[in-house]
Known about the structure:
The complex is a heterodimer. By secondary structure, chain A is an alpha/beta fold.
Amino acid sequence: xxxxxxxxxxxxxxVSLNSSIQVRVGTSNAFMVTASTILPLIEMFDMGGVxxxxxxxxxxxxxxxxxxxxxxxxxxxxxxxxxxxxGGTETQYDNITFxxxxxxxxxxLLRTMYHMRTTPYERNFVILDSVNALAIYNEDRxxxxxxxxxxxxxxxxxxxxxxINVPDQTPPGxxxxxxxxxxxxxxxxxxxIH
Amino acid sequence: MLPSTSYTRxxxxxxxxxxxxxxxxxxxxxxxxxxxGTCGSGKTTLAMEFLVRGSMAGEACAHFTAxxxxxxxxxxxxxxxxxxxxxxxxxxxxxxxxDVLYSWLGLTKATFELEDVHALIKAITDIVNTxxxxxLVIDSVTTLCYKIKSEQLIRDFLxxxxxxxxxLGCTTILIAEITSATENAHWSSFGVxxxxxxxxxxxxxxxxxxxxxxxxxxxxxxxxxxSRAKYALELTPLGVMLTPMLxxxxxGDKSSQWGM
Lengths: 194, 260
């Protein structure tokens, strides 16, 4: 049984809708921290949202969430991984949009905005998972520019922005800019492995 | 020197997501706008959405189609949530096949002469006048102008048509097909369309690491201090959506790497 990090929900209860939260995770706790961030948004704050998955295919994420009892019907997934694998887009889930590649950054933004226009929920979040996965495909400077645009676009629309990154795998220039753009930090990036 | 008055022209609000912000409020009323783009860049969808948004506000709209039959056009556009067939059935959006119009006018020749061009202008303006059309799309002016052999005649046709439509208070989008939308490309097929029109929208694809990303750029819009930046375009079920294109996202731009 997974143990959710209660301190994250306590921290989230203090942020406003137009906040942008940088969630620093380690390679071993990424899933637990991500789940601990999403669960209170849905269950405590009655939010819906968009989950942009650049690190893994959306089906895999949905199945992992379902396994730990996390509700996924309020989340629309934008999958940047599966389409490039040819055949990865055949799925039973209708809450997934596939984008050809993580380099199509503007399309990701526009597709997210599209879902924000159609969402039935009054309060929404957008989760970008993750900056270091996007950094595999995109130049540092372009990625920094994109994060600047992305965060400001959703802050302006009062959509809570959650940016997940593994700090030691994120280019320093991008990380420095992320520190500057984000209003809040959930730092679970320093994991001591015994 | 700054203008002495703060006069601004009334705008035809396109209703297309992002476009009115780019145009600082919309297209100045009565303008003739050339919408040039490569195949698959979203010209027809954008133009159709322009008509749909107008018709939803109660405006009478007309679409002259020369590139595909109206049945096919409507079939393609029905997949979008923004489109409602009721708008066509109720007569707010009127779709005309150019081939049918040519037949009505007896224009069966392969190429048009001066009198044929005048007959065509009169037919279009009569339709606009009779229905009270305030938004018009001709898709495409390139296909139409292939029948007009002389550049001078094409120029006269577009100039006269634009002038007459403007006096009728009609805002017009002329769609032009181009083969390339890169920096060295022409904005029209015949090289004369852009000089006649009040505005030019260029649509095309930019390549990024093997992927094509649609873009839109407003090159010219008389009477408007518009943005001239490039915007990424996405065709969604709700219609066209635009966002600023990443400045560091151009192909082959080595300077996009920090420290270089």
